[in-house]
Design goal:
By secondary structure, the protein is mainly β. It has a domain of 85 residues: Ubiquitin-like (UB roll) (Roll), CATH 3.10.20. It contains 2 helices and 7 strands. The strands form 2 sheets. The chain has a 5-stranded mixed sheet with strand order 2-1-7-4-3. Strands 5-6 form a two-stranded antiparallel sheet. A hairpin with a 5-residue loop joins strand 1 and strand 2.
Amino acid sequence: MDMKLNLSEKDGNTYKVELDADKARMLIGKKIGDEVEGDLIGAPGYTFIVTGGSDISGFPMRADVPGAGKKMLLLSSGTGIRKTKKGERLRKPVRGNTVSDQIAQLNLVVKASGAQKLAELFPKPEKKEEKK
């Protein structure tokens, strides 16, 4: 299954990359906080840190849940929770902190830069002009 990656830089720029199934298999088994070499993604010389993601159903990954499975947790704050009342807790389905074949989208942050800029490696598509 293909995987979408969001590559974020410290200045706030984000680049979207789509990996085919063969390259995505190289990321399986990584955990939130692990380092990923940029050669796997097509960014030689870069080092990335896995910060999160979501599965094919849209459930977010949480760093404090071990494993790759989906779990129903009683949560009061953190990823996947929007609090409306003070002291409120919600039972929500979340995905564990390990990348599996069920992960559809993965968030990565640049730790070390390479020779080329990410803007050159992954150019953003141009926006279409709206007709009035």
